[in-house]
Structures are given as C-alpha cells and as structure tokens.
Specification:
It contains four helices and three strands, in the order E-E-H-H-E-H-H. By secondary structure, the protein is an alpha+beta fold. Strands 2-1-3 form a three-stranded antiparallel β-sheet, sandwiched between helices. The longest helix has 12 residues.
Length: 88
C-alpha cells in the first residue's frame, strides 16, 4: 500500500496539508463529503496542488507534520518546484 502527503489550495487561497492512503477518495471527501476536514469544509472547493508518495504511513505522517509547520511561502516554493515553475 502507498501513502500520500498532499497540499490543497482552498477557495480562499489558503493551503491545507494532509496525508491519506487514497488520494482520489480523500480529495472527493474534502470537496463533497461530511468526512472532509473541518478546515476545508468551510473553504470549498479545494484543488490538489501537490503530492508525494510514501511506502509507510509513519513516513507520510512525519512528512505531513513537517509541512504543516512551514509558512505559506515555503509551501508555495515546494509546489512551484515540483510543477517546474521555480523562478529562482
């Protein structure tokens, strides 16, 4: 099984980081379900901006926790580098 760490952009342009073993299902939950995170329920719709894949839940949760400590600028830098938009 694979685990994903992801960053979403909410309708208010804020960023949300999470982890899951089913990225497609979780994205649908964030946008449509009562099972989505409280934070994203109030800021729908959300768009997937970034994801990473891990072999273990422990590693994914560790990375999620790390990203959640970052400020917006650092998260955007990560998103832009992965998308090939790094302007530095």
């Amino acid at each position: 099984m694979s685990y994903f760490v992801y960053i979403l952009e909410c309708a208010d342009k804020s960023l949300y980081a999470g982890a899951t073993n089913n990225l497609e299902k979780r994205l649908k939950q964030h946008n449509n379900s009562k099972c989505g995170a409280h934070y994203t329920k109030l800021r729908r719709p959300v768009i997937l901006k970034y994801s990473e894949i891990y072999k273990t839940l422990k590693k994914a949760r560790k990375r999620e926790a790390e990203i959640k400590t970052w400020d917006r600028t650092k998260k955007l830098t990560l998103i832009n580098k992965r998308c090939g938009v790094d302007k530095n």
